[in-house]
Amino acid sequence: MNLRDEILNWKAQRNAVILAHNYQIPDIQDIADFTGDSLELARKATEIDAAAIVFCGVHFMAETAAILNPGKTVLVPDPKAGCPMADMLTADQLRNFKAQHPRAKVVCYVNSTAEVKAESDCCCTSGNAVEIVRHYPDDEVIFVPDAHLGAVVAKKLNRDLILWPGYCPTHARISPQDLLDLKKAHPQAIAMAHPECPLRVLQVADEILSTGQMCTFARENPAREFIVVTEEGLLHRLRKENPAKTFYHISPYAVCPNMKQNTLEKLYFCLRDGQPVVTVDPATAARARRAIEQMLAWS
Ligand code: 13P
Ligand code: SF4
To answer: Which atom of ligand 2 is nearest to the CA of 111?
Structure first.
């Protein structure tokens, strides 16, 4: 049996479902039961009828699945695949920040730890952040941890938000010049940028979209060429779903080393051994669940 068949065999034996983020390597996207963005994966995690979920992404995504499924086993291929942006804000730091703005509501990007979610009023993803903050029209809002996404929301809603200076190191490596050069080389192409990019990059993009929204946009838009201003893993899905269209990646530096920790070999071992398991302390999980469920109810 080859590795792929071994994985499918163990997946059946464990009654498991494989979820993968759009930034995973092609081999993992191709073997997954479902590939999507953070919002789509969080939704999917509430609909799963299986004993185990293998989450191929980064740690906070698996934690979110575990929080939403207290009775299920959540496995990850590599427990060291974390998100540096999520690690830029601890629960203690958020508690201190809240103490400085005692009347503010807290909206946390899903790229955050379970402890930070537990301290928040509502969660959001890049696909629904504007919609979620709109639910607090008259409140001061603390937005954590992504200052870039927060700035996009503030600009769109034409209001001030209290931002935490977190950011994604992968998207921070993208420069406006990278995009201007590609636009010059491919003047017909539409530039789709992720809101984790710095504002000066977003200012020269045509569309600001989550990775799932980029897939829908590229499928439905009649244009034939697109510049993809986000992590390179998404290119595999875009090319597979749109074989007649051309996609240009923004930069060889826009690769998330954390997302790339997961490999088919690690996926195989994780299914065979039933570990590593991701767990969240039940009291923290209960408080974090309120913030995630509020997001799902509002989006
Ligand atoms: P989305 O896929 O939800 O747009 O988020 C991207 C991301 O950075 C996940 O870490
Ligand atoms: Fe975190 Fe950025 Fe990697 Fe997404 S791309 S997992 S935000 S480091």
So the answer is: 7
Q: Which ligand 2 atom is nearest residue 58's CA? A: 6
* Gap from CA of 1 to ligand 1 centroid (Å): 34
Can you give the three-state secondary structure of the chain, one letter per residue? CCHHHHHHHHHHHCCEEEEEECCCCHHHHHHCCEEECHHHHHHHHHCCCCCEEEEECCHHHHHHHHHHCCCCEEECCCCCCCCCCHHHCCHHHHHHHHHHCCCCEEEEECCCCHHHHHCCCEEECCCCHHHHHCCCCCCCEEEECEHHHHHHHHHHHCCCCEECCECCHHHHCCCHHHHHHHHHHCCCCEEEECCCCCHHHHCCCCEECCHHHHHHHHHHCCCCEEEEECCCCHHHHHHHHCCCCEEEECCCCCCCCCHHHCCHHHHHHHHHHCCCECCCCHHHHHHHHHHHHHHHHHC
Pocket test for ligand 2, best of 41, 56, 58, 251 (most atoms within 8 A of CB): 58
pLDDT of residue 39 exceeding 90:
no
| Segment 183-230, tens digit of pLDDT | 999 999 999 999 999 999 999 999 999 999 999 999 999 999 999 999
Test site for ligand 2: of 41, 111, 148, most ligand atoms within 8 A of the Cβ: 111
Condensed to tens digits (0 to 9), the pLDDT of residues 9-21 reads 999 999 999 999 9
- Which homologous superfamily does the CATH classification assign to the domain defined by 174-249? NadA-like (3.40.50.10800)
Q: With respect to CATH, is domain 86-168+287-298 assigned 3.40.50.10800?
A: yes
Q: Is domain 3-82+259-279 annotated with CATH 2.60.40.3250?
A: no
Say whether pLDDT at 1 is over 80. no
Nearest atom in ligand 1 to the alpha carbon of residue 83 is 10
Of 19, 29, 34, 37, the one to substitute when testing ligand 1's pocket (max ligand atoms within 8 A of C-beta) is 37
The percentage of the chain sitting over the pLDDT mark of 70, rounded to a whole number, equals 100
